[in-house]
Amino acid sequence: MRAVGVVADHDPPPTLTDLYRARRLDMVRLALFLVDDLHTAEDVVQDAFAALCRTYGTSLHGLQDPGAYLHTAVVNAARSVLRRRRTARAYTPPHPAAGAPVDEGLLLAEEHRQVLDALARLTRRQREVLVLRYWSDLSEAQIAQTLGLSRGTVKSTASRALDALEKKLEAGR
């Protein structure tokens, strides 16, 4: 195997395979000293070799000193990793908005229970009209067809049912 370093004018440049075999471990050690993480160091070196291959191909023709190029690529990639780390560590996420009070679920559940209790005390027809209107989101015409009533009856029943429901809820407080 020929030495990989500065290429003399009469010697052909080393291939990418030659450079990889000769310098990979040295470059991983260098990257490890810079980024302090073996997996990241290996990724940095792999990316440097991949960039070298994309730019010059596997024969490395046109590259005066492949070892120096690789060294510079590893150092620059390690610097980029360190910059990203520093940015990530400096980021302070915004404070989350104050959440709902701890007992809000309990209060809401109690309010729902009170509404359901008051609804149960309505007449069957009033309860049906309100449930179809506000739970099933049906129109007056759809409710009238479903219950076999006139549209006017549905309208007046809904109005009376809401009044009765409101009174029952106020009485329960």
TrEMBL record:
Residues 113-165 form the RNA polymerase sigma factor 70 region 4 type domain. Keywords: DNA-binding, Sigma factor, Transcription, Transcription regulation. SUPFAM superfamilies: Sigma2 domain of RNA polymerase sigma factors, Sigma3 and sigma4 domains of RNA polymerase sigma factors. Residues 19-86 form the RNA polymerase sigma-70 region domain. The keyword Membrane does not apply. The keyword DNA-binding applies. Pfam families: Sigma70_r2 (PF04542), Sigma70_r4_2 (PF08281). It comes from the Bacteria. Gene3D superfamilies: 1.10.1740.10, Winged helix-like DNA-binding domain superfamily/Winged helix DNA-binding domain. Belongs to the sigma-70 factor family. ECF subfamily. NCBIfam families: SigE-fam_strep (TIGR02983), sigma70-ECF (TIGR02937). This is SigE family RNA polymerase sigma factor.
